[in-house]
Amino acid sequence: MAPLLSALVLLLAATAAVLAKSASKIAGGVPSSEHEFPYQISLQLDGRHFCGGSLISDRFVLTAGHCTGALLSGLTVEVVAGEHDFSAPSEHAQRRVVDEFWVHEDYVVGMVAPNDVAVLRVDRPYELNEFVGLVQLPGKNVLHDGTCVISGWGSVSFNAYPIYPDVLQKAYLPIMDQEQCVKIWEGGPVADSNVCAGTVEGGTGVCSGDSGGPLVMEGPEHKEQVGIVSWGGVPCGGPNNPGVFVRVSYFIDWIEDKLARKD
Known about the structure:
Helix content is 10%, strand content 31%. It has 263 residues and is mainly beta. The chain has 2 domains: 40-133 and 252-260, Trypsin-like serine proteases (Thrombin, subunit H, Beta Barrel); 135-249, Thrombin, subunit H, CATH 2.40.10. One of its GO terms (cellular component) is extracellular region.
């Protein structure tokens, strides 16, 4: 029996009051090294992290469609690059605000559903350096296999009560066979445009606050984004509870169309 599917569980708990702080582990992961993930983005509302993202151009960020609720409400969202530890803000962090954004036309905002992808454009370019850099996009419809790394400031708790870390966390997850994932989430919205990562045994996984963040395959030449954190079940990292991600390669044409809109 699959864990309870909670609508937008990865986001809703992240926007609730923070119950505790920790430098501990992301649901089975470990703290990352400083600036290990220069493409990692923190989306913030009133100075508080609520979603992740990835830098794919000096002015464009890839994230989940369900992370755009504040923008749809007309609120100002800060897009922070180069951060590592919220308790000791980095002098290398760069802050921008969203000046335009696009949510996939086939995504129903506010739902656990396929096509959960969005592109944000910031008001001015980031300065790319060793602390702020880009992740590479995959080729169209590439199907990845192997182990990927996830990164984020999501809850480190294994239960329904979130505990958010100050330090950016990381964990390694194997890509799960698609048929196996569909079977585990029987009745859930796992589509061909999704990719799943995790194990049947559990122990490691994404959690609230990780939404919109990147699932990345690390190679000797570059780091390529495989997925975008979309949804999962409760408890985070539990058995039969793989994370469900947007498959980036499925949406390359759509993403590149937005990257062309620089003005």
